[in-house]
Specification:
The chain has 365 residues and is of the alpha/beta class. The protein has 13 helices and 13 strands. It has two domains: 4-163 and 346-364, Glycogen Phosphorylase B (Rossmann fold); 166-343, 3-Layer(aba) Sandwich (Rossmann fold). It has helices spanning 14-29, 45-50, 66-79, 89-99, 140-149, 201-207, 229-236, 253-259, 275-282, 295-298, 313-325, 327-343, 347-364, and strands at 4-8, 33-38, 54-57, 83-86, 105-110, 134-137, 157-159, 187-192, 217-222, 244-248, 262-265, 286-290, 305-308. A seven-stranded parallel beta sheet has the order 3-2-1-4-5-6-7, with helices on both faces. A six-stranded parallel beta sheet has the order 10-9-8-11-12-13, with helices on both faces. The longest helix has 18 residues, at 347-364.
Length: 365
């Protein structure tokens, strides 16, 4: 049953949006008719058009804007869509209003846990709005949070992970440590994230206090605002402060991740199926992550990586030391991570999951 699907999202950044954008290219190739409203200068527009997708140069700029709502409504009516999938705040608020009086099924996307509460009036303009037919969650952790937040109305929750494809990363060439002025014999843990409280970077730094002084383990911190005074103070207190490297945001971060022995993330809350971890796994880099919703779904503990308690520097330090002392086992887990992507977090599985979700909503009508 071919579907007519309208998508409202932002596709300006190629690498960041690739897992999502490829879903709709896949659905178009599967015989469905996809139309995408996004910025006309988005990086993916050419690929969308090449796949036969209709692209409308539009992105919501202001919530509850009457002209924008009318524009979306007119497209819904003219296109006679079965499904409208909304991916960000302004698109959700305006898209929901635009759907009133039409037959289109309205889906929202939620990619991270938190910030939805039954007592928050703004939630009823988006995720808790009565016109929403379903919410597509990127992890079971996200779905669990929304279920708890929904007291007066229980929205339909569908969990489909955004998958990756190993071929996206085949051309990534790993740096050599010397390229980055690093010792050739080091063991490298990389963390790629913008520094926010939820990322738990202070706990990550403190985990290095639990490594023996002779351990040649280096931490490469990629992302914005990592070198805060708090973080630098922690680094100064470590036995080997010279082994912590603040590298800032880099466009070639994937080359560093591929060079690394482990991808490490000390998140405290608010994660889902974290894209940076899946990228690392797709490059064959073993993950070391915390036991929070979303995170714990990504790897099999002790098989494709390690999972440790959150806010526990000692546990993270012990796991890191174990990886350092058993390099062959660490490499084997990296290979298992590749298989995990291929068999569990594959983009083709995601495309099928979205298709089945859409069809179930239409058939329910």
């Amino acid at each position: 049953m071919p579907l007519k699907i309208l998508v409202l999202s932002n596709y300006r950044s190629t690498i960041t949006v690739r897992p999502e954008a490829e879903i709709f290219i896949g659905l178009q190739k599967a015989g469905h008719q996809v139309t995408i409203m996004t910025y006309g200068d988005s990086a993916y527009v050419a690929k969308f058009k090449e796949a036969g997708i209709k692209v409308i140069d539009f992105h919501a700029q202001k919530k509850l804007d009457k002209k924008e709502i009318a524009f979306i409504h007119q497209e819904i009516v003219t296109g006679d869509y079965d499904i409208m999938h909304l991916f960000n705040g302004r698109s959700m608020v305006n898209g929901i209003q635009a759907a009133k009086g039409t037959r289109v099924k309205v889906l929202l996307y939620r990619g991270f846990e938190g910030h939805i509460h039954w007592y928050d009036p703004t939630a009823y303009f988006k995720f808790l709005h009565a016109r929403v037919d379903a919410i597509m969650c990127n992890s079971e952790g996200v779905a669990e949070h929304i279920a708890k937040a929904s007291i007066f109305r229980k929205p339909r929750l569908i969990t489909v992970n955004k998958g990756h494809r190993l071929e996206w990363y085949q051309d990534v060439e790993a740096f050599k440590p010397a390229d980055l002025d690093l010792p050739a014999d080091g063991f490298y843990a990389v963390c790629a994230a913008n520094n926010r409280r939820m990322k738990g970077v202070p706990y990550l730094l403190k985990s290095f206090a639990h490594l023996p002084p002779e351990a040649n383990v280096h931490l490469l911190l990629l992302g914005k605002d990592m070198d805060t005074e708090e973080n630098k103070k922690i680094v100064a207190s470590l036995p080997n402060p010279q082994n912590i490297h603040f590298m800032g945001w880099r466009p070639d971060s994937l080359r560093i991740v591929k060079m690394a022995d482990t991808f490490i993330l000390a998140s405290l809350y608010g994660e889902s199926i974290t894209k940076s971890v899946l990228e690392g796994m797709s490059l064959g880099t073993t993950a070391l992550i915390t036991d929070i919703p979303g995170n714990r779904e990504m790897i099999e503990d002790g098989v494709s990586g390690y999972i440790v308690p959150k806010a526990n520097p000692e546990a993270m330090g012990k796991a890191l030391l174990k990886m350092y002392q058993n390099p062959n086992a660490t490499k084997a887990m990296g290979k298992a991570a590749l298989e995990r992507i291929k068999n569990r977090f594959n983009s083709e599985i995601t495309i099928k999951g979205y298709e089945e979700a859409y069809l179930s909503l239409v058939r329910k009508a």
